């Protein structure tokens, strides 16, 4: 019997920082049925107050910067984002009283842009053809021009990113599976989730397999994920930690997101579709095992995408 981590606490939370983490682990029955007795699970990261897994590293980055004196009143939080990390910064910055400036591709979903503006973030829209790499370069340019104005959070190179998952996500998965996990599957964007969870799990059991998920080419529609061979590689990314990388096409991810909504009752985002597609590919090879993946967010921030309503689906 798998353990669940309770969401409710007896005492009142002081702020949104205390609401992050301790997300449920969901077991799949229908989609996993062809692969029994292999078990497949996913962490439901939309339970975080900002609606995504990115709340975890954003909190760690902000708290670490405050402790180290890099972030103090009057400083503006600056970073590049594809959306979810920006939402986390904007939410936590508002709670702490910091202004937030975000460089984000202009083709980010309208829902994400509206949420960011609702939190009061300043948005610098970058060339959509350059993806998150263009946003990264613009954030660097702005920081270099005014280093005294900004705290450059630099999620792609900040070790506090992966440490957040080492400290929280990894231990949660280990506890929730009672140490039975055999395979961990996660999308590669900043790579913070995989680097942190992977290091923690390998310390607990070196036999656990770590599988990264990335787009199958440089031109793709998987927001938040990077094709590592052609993109600016995050400084926190260590490919040697991984046992394998599974490429997923945009079409596979879209189709799986639809299946999750219509067969499992889970309305999740595109990167969650990619993660589940990869998890099923891993499960298909196994005779037994416990496969755990991450569902970074829900589908509400992608409602404007036409793939939800394609004919015959």
UniProtKB/TrEMBL annotation:
Superkingdom, taxonomy of origin: Bacteria
Name of a matching Pfam family: PALP
Residues the record lists as binding pyridoxal 5'-phosphate: 84, 189-193, 271
Domain Tryptophan synthase beta chain-like PALP: 17-297
Requisite cofactors: pyridoxal 5'-phosphate
Database matches in SUPFAM superfamilies: Tryptophan synthase beta subunit-like PLP-dependent enzymes
Catalytic activity as recorded in UniProt: O-acetyl-L-serine + hydrogen sulfide = L-cysteine + acetate
InterPro entries named in the record: Cys_synth (IPR005856), Cys_Synth/Cystath_Beta-Synth (IPR050214), P-phosphate_BS (IPR001216), TrpB-like_PALP (IPR001926), TrpB-like_PALP_sf (IPR036052)
Single Gene Ontology MF annotation: cysteine synthase activity
GO biological process, any: cysteine biosynthetic process from serine
Positions where N6-(pyridoxal phosphate)lysine occurs in the chain: 54
EC number from the UniProt entry: 2.5.1.47
Keyword set, alphabetical order: Amino-acid biosynthesis, Cysteine biosynthesis, Pyridoxal phosphate, Transferase
EC category: transferase
Family: Belongs to the cysteine synthase/cystathionine beta-synthase family.
Protein name: cysteine synthase
Organism field: Candidatus Thermoflexus japonica
Upper taxonomic lineage: Bacteria, Bacillati, Chloroflexota, Thermoflexia, Thermoflexales
């Amino acid at each position: 019997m798998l353990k669940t981590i309770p969401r409710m606490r007896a005492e009142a939370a002081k702020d949104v920082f205390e609401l992050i983490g301790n997300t449920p682990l969901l077991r799949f029955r229908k989609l996993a049925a062809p692969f029994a007795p292999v078990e497949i699970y996913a962490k439901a990261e939309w339970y975080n107050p900002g609606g995504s897994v990115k709340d975890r590293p954003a909190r760690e980055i902000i708290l670490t910067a405050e402790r180290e004196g890099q972030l103090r009143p009057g400083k503006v939080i600056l970073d590049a984002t594809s959306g979810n990390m920006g939402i986390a910064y904007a939410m936590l910055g508002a709670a702490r009283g910091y202004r937030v400036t975000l460089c984000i591709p202009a083709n980010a979903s309208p829902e994400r842009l509206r949420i960011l503006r609702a939190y009061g973030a300043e948005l610098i829209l970058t060339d959509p053809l350059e993806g998150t790499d263009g946003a990264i370069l613009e954030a660097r340019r702005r920081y270099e021009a005014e280093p005294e104005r900004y705290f450059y959070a630099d999620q792609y190179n900040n070790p506090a990113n992966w440490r957040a998952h080492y400290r929280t996500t990894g231990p949660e998965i280990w506890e929730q599976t009672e140490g039975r996990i055999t395979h961990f599957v996660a999308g590669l964007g900043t790579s913070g989730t995989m680097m942190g969870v992977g290091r923690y799990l390998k310390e607990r059991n070196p036999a656990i397999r770590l599988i990264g998920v990335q787009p199958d080419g440089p031109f793709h529609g998987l927001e938040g994920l990077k094709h590592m061979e052609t993109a600016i590689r995050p400084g926190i990314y260590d490919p040697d930690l991984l046992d394998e990388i599974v490429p997923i096409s945009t079409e596979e991810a879209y189709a799986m997101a639809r299946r999750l909504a219509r067969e499992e009752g889970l309305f999740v985002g595109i990167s969650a579709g990619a993660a589940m597609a990869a998890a099923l590919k891993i499960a298909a090879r196994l005779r037994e095992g416990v496969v755990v993946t991450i569902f970074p967010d829900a589908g509400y921030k992608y409602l404007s995408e036409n793939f939800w309503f394609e004919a015959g689906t």
